[in-house]
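ARCHIVE CARD
Drawer: 12
Card no.: 0347
Subject: one protein chain, sequence and derived structure
Cross-reference: see card 0346
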Amino acid sequence: RLGIYGDDDISRPILAEMGLRQGLLVLSVAAGSPAARAGLEGTRVINGSEILPGDVILRLDGELLEEMGDLIELLDEYQIGDVVRLDLWRLGESRSVEVTLGGEFGSSGSD
């Protein structure tokens, strides 16, 4: 419904390096998805080996997110077309974005 991909096993060590104990690291954003339209950014590899972390989703409509399952569970309470607020951490700064939920964009680990 958002059009992002995340993986807790990959994200946890990266989040720890960033000094974050909670949140979901966005590994990728599906082109044309609600997340892409809202400006979310996925994780990138630069210079062949350096990881530039993407957005970290901290909260959905004020609810704290600690793992991908939290996001999936919360999104089950919403319908396509609903607007949700995501509180993000991007490159050391907090920001909030509103996202209008869409249809399905992937498989497990995606939402």
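Annotation on reverse: The mean pLDDT is 91. The first helix runs from residue 8 to 17.
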